[in-house]
Design brief:
By secondary structure, this protein is mainly alpha-helical. The chain has seven helices and four strands; from the N terminus they run αααααββββαα. α1 crosses α4, α2 runs antiparallel to α3 and α3 packs across α5. The relative contact order is 0.10.
Amino acid sequence: MEDLLVEVNAERLSKTEIKTAIKEEDNKHSLAIVNSTKAVGTKKRTQRNKVKASITKMSADGKSLAGLYEIELAMNDLKVDGLINDMKSLKACIEWVFNDLAKDKEYPFFTKENRQSMKNVTIEDDFPCVMSDVLPVRGKTKEINTESADVIVNLTEDDNNSFESKTKILFQTMTELDKNGDLVKNEEEFTYIFTTLTAKIRTELRNKRQEVLKSAEEEVELVA
């Protein structure tokens, strides 16, 4: 399933692939999440338990989450069917479970700082919904890891000698509108993404400048 949920700047969702994957035996828990979400009016506790079972699956070394793809598949199954209310219900459930786990002493791995949320919960495009870190609490400062920032200004040549900028994808994402004509990204998300982008640009500019200075120094040494 992981190969279906590629980065937003690569491929888009395929309804056929999602529907095929959701029926596979290995992904039966994802289907259970979907069914509990559709019946959330009478099965909210069931939905939470199903989501919690996926979130609390850990990697062999106990250092990372191993079941988030189950939730992503469930969310994208709802997305390809255009079930926006169910998508919002599942998103809210995911956030509730992460918050609840952060307070549960039985699960020391989970803290307020490493909570995650579902992103791109909209039916206005065919980009996949993916799990990612929760944005910092308003008023709090979050250290930006510029080395792992996904947003980067560049041009990449493809097999057809065409160029597509990740910046294009950025602005496609940032300008998504909901059915009411409002931006999907709220003010906090907008600010955070562009803060990350600015930090990445500064890092690239500094590195390029250092490369040029180093090259100039080497040329001077050779002449001397």
